[in-house]
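Assemble and predict.
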Amino acid sequence: MHERLSFFVRRDSPIHRLNPMTKVVMALSLVLIAFLSPWYWTPLALFLLVIIPLTLLAKVAREYWSFIFKVILPTVAILFLMQALFLPGESKIVFKLFGLEVTELSAQLAFRNVTRIIVMISSFTVLLLSTHPSELMSDLTQRGLPGQFAYVVISSLQIIPQMQAKAQTIISAQRSRGLDTQSSFFRRVSGILPLVGPLVFGSLVEVEERAIAIEARGFTSRHPKTFLHQIPDTSTDKLIRWILAALVLITILLRLWPS
Amino acid sequence: MAIVNLQNVTYKYPLTDVSALQNISLKVEEGEFVAVIGPNGAGKSTLCYAIAGFVPHFFKGELTGTVEVAGNESINSTLSEWVLNVGLAFQNPFNQISGAKYTVFEELAFGLENIGIPRAEMKRRVEDAMKLTGISDLADRSPYSLSGGQQQRVALTSILVMQPKVLVLDEPTSQMDPIGTREVFGVIRSMAERGMTVILVEHKVEWIAQFADRVIALKDGGILLDGAPSEVLTSPLLPAHGFATSRYTSVARKAREMGVWNGENLPVTLDEAVEGFSQRVKGIKS
């Protein structure tokens, strides 16, 4: 009945136990290294040697691969083809397709770009699979992120599915009164109008009431906030973050002074 | 000393011509349980918002007169300070769930986090409040997976944990079955007995008769009647002005017209009606 807009999978793993900030830093570092590294094979290496072990360690490999196969792989395959075909590159021709040439260099560039994108999406997927959104936001708020920002993120994750359910209720209600949702395009479009009214106006009223409700609970209070959950931040977490920062710095240096 | 004190309060919402509240003066003593009744559009909710500071801080509009709670005037305070003294819960429970929390326990702690209550005390307060309203078993559920009545209790509890001096409730039992209503009235009653001042808007007059100390009848933004439940709820003015009255009162009023109700006062609850009629029956038998 109630479906949440969240990737999170509850498991007991060392990755789940890490502080959310450590995982954010990890995701960002992986992305930075993948994009800044001077070697074209770095993103692939990161994927094979870091991301795959991470998914296994976090016990979310099954969920991760199902997401990759369903959503990422089709997109990335098309992207690779387009880039390989259209990126200019003066080198040996590998093969021809519809009169367009794929050269060694363009294939290499396409490969690098595509693996970069895979690393970027994968590292954030691992973060979201292994971190409860409320824990993530709570930790970031405790580190100084404005409470309003965290509220917008978390409440959207919960309220959007509720709104979808409501839209479904309105559609069912109108269909039971004879609204046509299955005939010609034009009739269906004209049928949307009576659905939009109740949903939009209803949502506006809801927003006002919700604003009153959270205001009544001191949402805009100037008092320094306290937090129900203490999110552990161990010395291991700090160590990991420093190592990641150092790796990013090394990558930047390698980029600036290619040997 | 009156904890809530309204003097000549008149209020107009923005972009409207008619005043939602007209020259209302009202004093409520500490620990008093006041019920507010009135037909639709009488200004019940607006009165709640005025006492809870949302009029004028949230809704803007024109307010004249003074609203005082615990000696402070609302116009001189900010809303976030005001809510420390006055808690507000209202009708639709779904919209009172913050959406920022994943369990009922966290939901109840939300307000306490905002006002900076230390963690240990926060947990203690949430646990106590859950026991009081009988929702301890819901602690780990998602607030969105609850029934309307359960959500309504969560909404009420989320205000109770803030421990305001004055509790303003705008139809807090609208989604509840009779059993839930009885329990919530019991909770509200015990809060009043502990010294919390309660202002409750409610349609269920039979419950008001049993639990409230005082009833205020609102009509067109003004106070029509103000007094003890037994007087106000049986007043002939109520049906004349379109108020919902208890069916027991209506029956007894008919009976009085026909000369078969001997009692001095009209009943509001079933028990009172039964007692009145059985006296009559005894009178016939003897």
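The two ends of chain A are 58 Å apart (CA to CA).
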